[in-house]
Amino acid sequence: MPLRQPSLRQDGPTRCFPSAEARWEAVAMTASHLRAQGRPVLIGTDTVPDSERLSWHLDRQGVPHTVLNARHDRQEADIIAQAGRAGQVTVATRMAGRGTDIALDQPALSAGGLHVIHCQRNESRRMDRQLLGRAARQGQPGSTETWICSSNLQDSHPIGDPMLTACSSSVTESVARTASWWRRISVRLHQWIEEQRQSAMRRHLLKQDRQWEVRAQQARR
To answer: Which residue has the higher pLDDT, 219 or 88?
Structure first.
């Protein structure tokens, strides 16, 4: 469906890091910089341990933040309500994806809107769009980035693959290198294969449901 208002979202290039630790350190530094500008920041992580490890790096950088994961689900409404405030940094697992609307205050809008850092290894592009779609909603300003590391590619590429070697050797310390087009295509290909597998499973389940309905109707006759 067409957008109700023109999108002002700015999508940054995909960045690749040699390890999760290098990525979390860089994320913490970027969050500190954006917070100083008055930008609210939403960082999407895969798991509870990932979110807590990133929280440790943020504490180390002296960045005030909140964490939304399965261990803080009771505070979800309060955390989301505050996530759009100027300078607010929120670390979240997939709980902050679909169906979450982050309302921004005026200082946050004036500073450039919500910035989303996508650090998840999602199985489908739809889940990527859900997280990145938290930024720049309803014609508001906002921006996004996708940050991956070598572990994001290990499921779809064997150990020793030149892609992993390039990803690991092209970045030193916490300095990220912009991923080339073939890296992005590789990740998208892996997601496309997973989407096709899930689609086949849904079709199979639907076929089974129809067969059970026919058998139930026959049994009632």
So the answer is: 88
